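step=encode ok
step=design start
structure_in=
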């Protein structure tokens, strides 16, 4: 069933993003990063948690879907993954990731592509670890994307999540690990589990953290002004 609560939070988050002062750099993972207009900044709490939790040491090759400003993909290269590929549907995000790969001296081991999920990859491109910090706010099926930035927040009818599970196996090495950064507060975890199961995957929580935050979202219930907000890194295994 469609989750309106998550959609309202997504609208609120996007509105907050549009109101913030323009910035061309940000700090994350103890480094400075370049930020281009219309790219989701990589200093979000979720990005920081997922980036620090992923098991890079166990992967030689790393694929990030939806790289945004490139913090996680560049971190994978800095942490020793010898082949890193970063994809984003937004050309600005792909450009931004290239700039940050060069800024941190790992452009030689990275490939960055503008790509709708895995569509830009070759048939034989396979990776040991695949990861997406996904736009987990479910939008109605008829949601119209007005700007590229909306792809960082919304997935209409979870169609992209469905394709993520359906297409990932074609790009996994033997024994590869598949991850998704998500929020059970904002996303529709029931629906996500169904889509994963359709593609033969079962989900487990690799790591999760819960915060108490003041969500000032008009029309949403919040107890004493505080709501529990979680970020979860799921791992999916094929049955
Ligand atoms: C929540 S943002 C995460 C950005 C970055 N990885 C981070 O953690 O800061 C989701 C990213 O997925 C990208 N995205 C959404 N749909 C996509 C698709 N179909 N193919 C590739 N990238 C997509 C968005 O453009 C956005 O950069």
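sequence_out=
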């Amino acid at each position: 069933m469609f989750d309106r609560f998550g959609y309202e939070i997504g609208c609120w988050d996007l509105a907050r993003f549009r109101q913030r002062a323009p910035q061309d750099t940000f700090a994350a993972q103890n480094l400075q990063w370049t930020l281009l207009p219309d790219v989701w900044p990589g200093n979000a709490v979720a990005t920081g948690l997922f980036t620090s939790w992923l098991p890079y040491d166990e992967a030689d090759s790393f694929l990030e879907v939806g790289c945004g400003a490139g913090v996680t993909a560049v971190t994978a290269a800095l942490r020793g993954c010898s082949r890193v590929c970063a994809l984003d549907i937004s050309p600005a995000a792909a450009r931004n990731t290239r700039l940050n790969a060069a800024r941190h001296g790992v452009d030689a081991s990275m490939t960055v592509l503008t790509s709708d999920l895995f569509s830009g990859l070759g048939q034989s491109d396979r990776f040991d670890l695949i990861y997406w910090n996904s736009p987990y706010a479910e939008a109605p099926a008829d949601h119209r994307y007005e700007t590229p930035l909306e792809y960082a927040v919304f997935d209409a009818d979870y169609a992209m999540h469905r394709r993520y599970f359906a297409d990932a196996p074609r790009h996994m090495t033997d024994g590869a690990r598949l991850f998704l950064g998500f929020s059970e507060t904002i996303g529709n975890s029931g629906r996500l589990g169904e889509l994963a199961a359709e593609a033969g995957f079962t989900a487990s929580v690799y790591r999760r953290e819960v915060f108490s935050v003041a969500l000032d979202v008009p029309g949403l219930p919040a107890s004493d002004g505080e709501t529990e907000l979680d970020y979860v890194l799921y791992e999916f295994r094929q049955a």
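step=design ok
step=annotate ok -> The chain has one domain: 4-238.
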